[in-house]
Amino acid sequence: MNGEHIHSAFDRDLEQLQADLVRMAGLVEQALRDATNALVTHDTELAAKVRREDKRIDALEDAINEEAARLIALRAPLAGDMRLVLSVIKISGHLERMGDYAKNMAKRTDLIADHPMVETAPAVLKRMANQVIAMMHQVVEAHISQDSALAHEVRDSDAEVDQMYNSIFRVLLTYMMEDPRQIAPCMHLHFIAKNLERIGDHTTSIADQVIYAVDGLRPDEDRPKADLTSVKDLTGS
Amino acid sequence: MNGEHIHSAFDRDLEQLQADLVRMAGLVEQALRDATNALVTHDTELAAKVRREDKRIDALEDAINEEAARLIALRAPLAGDMRLVLSVIKISGHLERMGDYAKNMAKRTDLIADHPMVETAPAVLKRMANQVIAMMHQVVEAHISQDSALAHEVRDSDAEVDQMYNSIFRVLLTYMMEDPRQIAPCMHLHFIAKNLERIGDHTTSIADQVIYAVDGLRPDEDRPKADLTSVKDLTGS
Q1: Where in the cell is the protein located (chains A, B) (predicted)?
Q2: Which residues contact A91 (CB under 8 A, 6 or more apart)?
Q3: Do A69 and B86 touch (CB under 8 A)?
Q4: What CATH number should be reported for the domain holding residue B49?
Q5: Are B167 and B99 in contact (CB under 8 A)?
Q6: Fewest Cβ atoms nearer than 10 Å: which of A10, A49, B15, B95?
Q7: What residues make up the domain containing A77?
Q8: Total tally of structural domains belonging to chain A
Q9: Which residues of chain A have pLDDT under 50?
Q10: What proportion of chain B, given as a percentage, has pLDDT over 70?
Q11: Is B181 exposed, middle or buried (0-12, 13-18, 19+ CB in 10 A)?
Q12: Is A183–B235 a contact, with Cβ atoms under 8 angstroms apart?
């Protein structure tokens, strides 16, 4: 049992762990895509599917945690490898929460289906969802290829999600003030936008994990770009 | 080396791990308290302290991760114990992010100190910070005593933080529309409120970890109370 042997056994276990993480991210992405489509097209059938499938996401988190713990116990990885395994544990936790938000979005499909849709809302929500899905893709790619520059990009682009959230919040507020009958559907739309914004936040947390696992450093600044885009956003209206 | 011996060695290690987690939570709480006071009283000295102290929070997360990994490797804990150790790893990750948000708040003290303070902002921010600090206290207590009922309470009370954030967002928006010179300071205040709201979200994630570690179940609903308080909030204005 020489160093090389131990190393390759660790690599094999790690590959399995990464494959499960990618599978988990794929399920979360699908859930988010389905939840958004269900909302926009009032497809209660598709929404029900999202709610059912969330159990598979939860089960994968459990499996990943067990595998990771087994890997630590068996292979006793050193500094850099250990950081990587711990980052997988933390990333799986974020993905699980993101799945919950998608499920929560799906739950509102039934509630929204009874109301006429606020005009501009579907387009904005869809754009927000697409942005978040693109970020998820990137951050998983950044994790797998251990690419901290890509992770930094993901961090920066979360400011756009925040900006979309702020703008939809103001649009909905205006609708509600103009017509109190719009309050119930607008409120649901607001929480959907909020969920998307939170999914964006979790993506940023995953990006932080990647940066830490790769560089051993924590990102110093907390998304500096958010300020500038916000100034533009708030003065331009 | 019988079962009891192994068990007590695990307990001793776990106690050490929990003590460090409590210490870490204490530092994050202090950072949040100091960052809020620095902002409200324009105390740039205190803000600088918060920024310096964040390194200690980061170092404690590293120490906790290492200890937890050592504990898994050495004691190979079974189902319930393993869930508990994994939850400590995940909770330390959330606390580290919360510390970052406090640091980010502190960084804005210098920027805000040059402007006259928006009248109602300090009181609202302080109330929001106090609410978040109270939740942090509760959730750490829930973790240490493995009390899932208390964790559920924390989850529910996050809706109040969201409500405070929404109300301050609208107040700041009004200020900015009325007087464009207020845009810069209001923007900073908005990001501070946003940071507090995100700290609240992380507290909720910790509560979820506690519930999962104790009951082996994931909280089903995503903070159902938020809807009701928001209806009241949005119609009452």
Answers
A1: Cytoplasm
A2: A21, A143, A206, A209
A3: yes
A4: 1.20.58.220
A5: no
A6: B15
A7: 3-235
A8: 1
A9: 1-2, 221-237
A10: 89
A11: exposed
A12: yes
